[in-house]
Write a structure and sequence with these properties.
The chain has helices spanning 12-16, 44-56, 67-87, 101-115, 135-144, 161-166, 190-199, 219-222, 247-252, 287-303, 305-324, 351-360, 373-379, 395-412; strands at residues 25-26, 29-30, 32-33, 95-98, 122-126, 147-151, 172-178, 203-207, 226-230, 241-245, 263-266, 271-273, 329-332, 341-346, 363-364, 366-368, 384-388. With 413 residues, the chain is an alpha/beta fold. Helix 7 (190-199) links the parallel strand 7 (172-178) and strand 8 (203-207). It is globular, with a radius of gyration of 22 Å. The protein binds pyridoxal-5'-phosphate.
Length: 413
């Protein structure tokens, strides 16, 4: 995250006009949408890109020899180029479209599980992973006898690199770790984590579903083997994500799903496979969603990922400051470079009740375990509320949250 001091300011008032949904109300009150870490709203540019494709230029991709198929294929492949630029991949061949973050993680775990991870082989995870980056590895533990080793984090979500390095043995095959906690907002030192993994001969998968939303990503600079993003948190559609995978690594892995498009030759006796990325994109892909994701990534790049991060850093500071003045609120995670993802609890109140009362004031926040039960256990809670800010949020939204929390406290205490 940027410190917000030297970036050109975003015109957030004008930018909000680009999001049709922000014009609607919630129970007759101004909608204050603070559930962006779950899913972000969509700008007109994304809505239009999908609408234009559906109305004007839609057919299946790669297979047709007619005008509409060729146009759709060009738009789909264009989105792949856009994603490659967004992540600074060396080649668009390293961009595999998936149905989202969860799909990307299942792809990597399943493909690695065929030959590379067997009985007694080790996988390192942090305790602040999203379930989507835990359960596929548990599958390998249950089905292949792999060993899952856990990296602890500080209360703020920070990683001790010394403790991390001690987890490696000559059986360590892969580290699967988040770029940013979806609960604590803490970023992880991905470049260092990658260097250490590679020094020990292990691969590294980085879950960028939150990290890529709040700052620029350069996969070549990080040097990771795999990096996943998901469209619906990046102001794009749901049902689409990207797995970045180094070309040499991906071409050495067996495919995860079988079907059309991923093959080279199929006979009654045998099958050979296409190269990456097509090797991992069996069947008709999420065409419209990929086009929408391309529009979203272009939109973010036009606004400037640094300018977005700077605006969000200002929101984070203001929100943390305002929350620290409420003596009935406990905030989880105060890493100095955290994203504007703020988990909190109100004394004596269940997060579900907090969320329900806030909702009636027009403020949408998330409550629950956030698909991060090992982290909940580490923090000694079963659930929290979570306010997460996006590019269109304002200081007025923070004021509405604080006002709503006063009301919640009055009602529940
Ligand atoms: C850190 C993190 N990883 C993975 C996911 C799952 O992504 P998707 O919803 O695209 O499957 C999420 C979604 O909440 C997340 O926050």
């Amino acid at each position: 995250m940027s410190d917000g001091s030297q970036m050109p300011a975003l015109d957030v008032v004008a930018l909000r006009e680009e999001f049709p949904i922000l014009k609607r109300d919630a129970y007759g009150k101004r909608l204050v949408y603070l559930d962006n870490a779950a899913s972000a709203q969509k700008p007109r540019a994304v809505i239009d890109a999908i609408k234009i494709a559906m109305e004007h230029s839609y057919a299946n991709v790669h297979r047709g020899l007619h005008l509409l198929s060729n146009e759709t294929t060009a738009a789909y492949e264009n989105a792949r180029e856009t994603a490659a630029r967004f992540l600074n991949a060396a080649s668009s061949d390293e961009i595999i479209f998936t149905s989202g973050g969860t799909d990307a993680m299942n792809l990597v775990a399943n493909a690695m599980g065929v030959d590379e991870i067997g009985q007694g082989d080790e996988v390192i995870l942090s305790v602040m992973e999203h379930h989507s980056n835990i359960v596929p590895w548990h599958f390998l533990r249950e089905r292949k006898g792999a060993v899952v080793k856990w990296l602890d984090v500080s209360d703020d979500g920070e990683i001790d690199l010394g403790a991390y390095e001690k987890l490696f043995t000559d059986r360590t095959k892969i580290v699967a770790i988040t770029h940013m906690s979806n609960v604590l907002g803490a970023p992880t030192p991905v470049k260092e984590l990658t260097r250490i993994a590679h020094e020990h001969g292990a691969k590294i998968f980085i879950d960028g579903c939150q990290g890529a939303v709040h700052g620029g990503v350069d996969v070549q600079n990080i040097d990771c083997d795999f990096y996943a993003i998901t469209g619906h948190k990046l102001y794009g559609p749901s049902g689409i994500g990207v797995l970045y995978g180094k070309k040499s690594v991906m071409n050495s892995l067996p495919p995860f799903k079988g079907g059309g498009e991923m093959i080279d030759l199929v006979t009654t006796e045998t099958v050979t496979y296409n190269d990456t990325p097509h090797r991992f994109e069996a069947g008709t892909p999420p065409i419209l969603e990929a086009i929408g994701l391309g529009a979203a990534l272009n939109w973010m790049s036009e606004k400037g990922v640094d300018a977005i991060a700077a605006h969000e850093a200002n929101l984070r500071d203001a929100a943390l400051d305002a929350l620290s003045k409420l003596n009935f609120v406990r905030v989880f995670g105060r890493a100095s470079n955290k994203a504007p993802i703020i988990a909190f609890n109100v004394d004596g109140a269940h997060p579900h009740d907090v969320s329900t009362i806030l909702d009636r004031t027009g403020v949408a926040v998330r409550a629950g375990h956030h698909c991060a039960q090992p982290l909940m256990e580490r923090l000694g809670v079963t659930a929290t509320s979570r306010a997460s800010f996006g590019v269109y949020n304002t200081f007025d939204d923070i004021e509405a949250l604080i006002k709503g929390l006063h009301k919640t406290h009055e009602m529940l205490s």
